[in-house]
Design a protein that fits this description.
Blueprint: H1 2-7, H2 9-116
């Protein structure tokens, strides 16, 4: 058998070469498919990275908005407190003016009583 393979070695060798070429083509096809698959995964990874950045940026934006709203609430509270103090100051000024008016009324009444006598 070895002698027949040796004598007719060219057809056996040529058959094996064809077989190897077919295997190489199969592997190349599989490699191309895997490269496509890998490229698709890379796209998904890139998109996931972009989405992650987008999500992180949205989270940061929401956190910043929350901080702004908290600051707005604090500002409004301070403005209300300042308005309360201003209102209290105005009320005290009104009370003082009322007392002055009462004193002046009493003074004019006493003065008019003195002049009337």
């Amino acid at each position: 058998m070895a002698i027949s393979a040796f004598i007719s070695g060219k057809p056996v060798l040529a058959g094996r070469v064809d077989e190897l070429k077919e295997q190489i083509n199969d592997y190349n096809q599989q490699i191309a498919e895997l490269e496509k698959e890998i490229a698709e995964y890379q796209k998904q990874i890139d998109n996931a990275g972009k989405e992650s950045k987008t999500l992180n940026s949205q989270i940061l934006q929401l956190e910043t908005r929350i901080k702004k709203f908290k600051a707005d609430i604090t500002l409004t509270g301070k403005q209300i407190s300042a308005a309360d103090i201003l209102l209290e100051e105005i009320m005290m000024g009104i009370e003082t003016k009322e007392k002055e008016i009462i004193k002046l009324n009493n003074y004019w009444r006493k003065s008019s009583e003195i002049w009337m006598k």
